[in-house]
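Hey everyone, long-time lurker, first post.

I ran two proteins through the pipeline my lab uses and got sequence/structure pairs for each. Pasting them in order. The first:
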Amino acid sequence: MRSFRLRLAAISVIMSGLVLLAFGAVSWLIFQRVGVANLDEELQNFGFRVAGRAGPNVSGPRTETNMAEVFGVESARARFFSLVVQGDRITHRTDSWPRGLDPVSFQGGVDPLDPQPELVDPPPRPAAEVEPGRPNPPPARVILEPRYYTVSAEGARYRVGVFSNGEVRIVLGADLAELGRGLHQIRRAFLIALPGALFIVALGAAFVGRRALRPIEVLSDRMENVSAEGLDQRIKVERTDLEFKRIIDAYNVMMGRLEKSFHQATRFSADASHELKTPLAVMQGTLERALAKCPDESEAQQVYSDLLEEVGNQRAILESLLLLSRADAGELKLSREEVDLSKLVETLVEDASLLAEGRGITVESEIAPGIRMEADAALLQRVLHNLFSNAVKYNRDGGQVKCALSRIGDAIEFTVANTGAPIPREEHEKIFDRFYRSGDAGNSRVEGVGLGLSLAREIVAAHGGEILVADDAGEGMTVFVVRLR
């Protein structure tokens, strides 16, 4: 079985994970572009500073010193430049210039296919005035539009900017490893935080799912605990979400119809049983009087005897139906009194022995003395009599019936076992259904309509106990067990 809450949490985690991964990828690209843009701006500031004043005789060492002052000593180690004057002649190259890169190959401001120079528009602001007493800087020069390249050499990646004033070209670059380390730290922090975020999402989804499904859980609990006594229970809908209101309203309407139908059925069963008792009593009295007037061993006497016996059976069935209807309506009232179960069982064992004597069935008993309890003696006797009667009726000729009464802790246990045909395991619960008869019993000529065990279960349940059937594999017997507290 699948859990909706687990599926909701899984879907939330998957969707959130995809969204977070997409957000992380986009953020990483943005950080990368911003980092490259910031690096280009740093290179541009220094490149414009040099290209705006440099001429053919620009000093490479002095420019290198200025780079250290501008970027700082630590950052300058990751920077490099090369000065190229007219004629593609390299006049200076820093020691940190990467091997495998040719400064001359980088063009600045001039497209080989379109040799017209592109001037920076607007032109960069001139350098700040120097302090008094120092020589004036050379005049500012016109700067061509810079060009930027991302190149690789010997397994490393570099960002290179080319700044030119038409006479001098400064090829200025920086190692992208520093930017890569920053991006790597951001990526690692994101991947470390991602499982925690998804775990929180899963907990949140599970919490939301539980809160959202609370009305369904309440509905499930009510449906699982529906009984004849609880058909009047309804679920309130004051604070229920609109999505569940329709379901709960349908449940309440269904329970209303079920309650009405149930009460009608139980009332019909009780009324019919009650109304039929009077005509049957009249029939029984009439047959008894007619039987008393018939000659002995006459055909009429046999007919009246059979009819009288059938009327007795019908009265027993009606009495069982009346008790069952009361149990369904929760009106099976018990007249509790102190009952000596030991003596009651002993009496029923004697009656069962008389019934079994004609078929050669032996009845054995093991009854603990002095077992008493508060119970309805008449109803409890009806249960035990039914079990003994079944143990004899459904037994084989020459078989055995064994019964036992004992106290186990705070419970009383009564068992009846017989050597009749075993009841299939899949029918152990069905035999307590009304009007149900096991396959062997239904095909046999044994009298019965299938109400005895159903009524026995209701009576035992009213006493706070249980009745069940089990197989005694060791002796091949069918065992009925009654446990009472």
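...and the second, right after it:
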Amino acid sequence: MKYNSELKRLILPEYGRNIHNMVDFCLSLPNKAARQRCALSIISTMGNLFPHLRDRSDYKNVLWDHLAIMADFKLDIDYPCEVIRKEDLYSKPPTIPYGDLGFTYRHYGKLTEKMIEVAIGMPEGEERNRLIFMLANFMKRSFVTWNKDTVENTKILNDLYDLSHGKIRLTENEISLIDSQEVITQASEGAISSPQPVKKKKKKNKNK
């Protein structure tokens, strides 16, 4: 009796040693017609072992691919479909290069920068102001969430000014930003919600 470690390595272990032995037997047959009949019997047995494959429209192709692989592509038969080639099996896919996203501040994300560009192109008015207020609060949430630290409102407003190329300038008297500690608490509780618009503070009339 031999241990499995002493036997021939299984190419596709999920099919078991008996199927691999059947494939080796098929390879040893000198007559092509006999190999063809034997291959059909092996495919039928493989299909019975994994009936769930029948849910796939190409399950027959999968089985014939597996047969070719277990035979090390040396089985001389007429395959009923095009099977995978040996060079395709072991070749590596081409490397997909990372796109140059050109982040200015990664913790804000590219979408934030795009939304700032949208705000810049909007006409002056309440709708533009609401979007800017939402963006500023969202920037503060993003900063605190990623950096796990408090941040001064002036930092967020300066970053907004920078990202807008100087076209959006706000002061702390013009906007109310969410408290840093509130963001930290919400993050720890997993309760971060979508940013809500903050109404612009009205300037006090000194003439009154």
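Reply from user beta_strand_b:
Welcome! Quick read of the second one: Residues 191-203 have pLDDT under 50 and may be disordered. The CA atoms of residues 47 and 154 lie 67 Å apart.
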